[in-house]
Design goal:
Largest sheet: none
Mean pLDDT: 84
Number of helices: 11
Radius of gyration: 19 Å
Low-confidence stretches: 191-199
Helix content: over 70%
Shape: elongated
Strand content: under 5%
Length: 199
């Protein structure tokens, strides 16, 4: 994976912290899910998924989380766990599919959309990532990390002015945030740069 891809992989992983062989052959997965659905309720299925995730068996964890979802479990929490185990297993396209399916019915879930944007960026889909980040910022304009992510994409595309504008916005919102030092170094000396969150 390139340095840029590794950066976005880290962003996706870090983002998943704040969110409370990934997909085997479809028929085998479906058969396993049907068995699980007959055996347990959504809470029990989710608990088993967490146990397998803790053991590092992301395939089994995914199966149990999907079963819990199909058995009527809470979609938001379960999709976050599905995305997390797929990202942990390095299966970004599958994680994106889960996020996309969920967002069709829950388009206002900014957290899931932001993580999907970082995954798209990790896969080199700058255009798709920018579209998702703009939707995130339309709903939550003061989400500093989304501005920083846009700055990183703009920088890779050679859009220095666009990157600088997003970095300034980030610093206004998070003057002591986790990316603040890097953002300031990228911008260079700007004595008039505001360091407080705008009114």
């Amino acid at each position: 994976m390139s340095m840029r891809g590794r950066y976005w992989a880290v962003v996706a992983a870090v983002s998943l912290v704040s969110m409370t062989g990934c997909a085997p052959a479809e028929s085998k997965l479906d058969r396993g899910i049907e068995t699980m659905r007959r055996e347990s309720n959504p809470t029990e299925l989710s608990s088993r998924g967490e146990a397998f995730a803790a053991l590092g068996d992301m395939t089994r964890a995914e199966q149990y989380f999907v079963a819990a979802l199909k058995a009527g479990g809470e979609p938001g929490a379960l999709v976050r766990r599905l995305v997390a185990v797929c990202v942990a297993d390095g299966r970004y396209p599958v994680a994106i599919e889960y996020a996309e399916d969920y967002l069709r019915n829950h388009p206002r879930d900014v957290d899931v959309r932001y993580v999907m944007a970082t995954m798209r960026a990790a896969l080199g889909d700058a255009s798709g990532a920018k579209d998702e980040l703009r939707m995130v910022l339309a709903a939550k304009p003061n989400l500093a990390d989304a501005h920083y992510a846009l700055a990183q994409i703009a920088r890779t595309e050679g859009d220095v002015m666009g990157a600088d504008a997003e970095l300034r916005h980030y610093l206004r919102l998070e003057p002591t945030g986790r990316h603040a030092e890097v953002a300031r170094a990228s911008l260079g000396p700007h004595p008039t740069l505001m360091q407080t969150v705008p009114e």
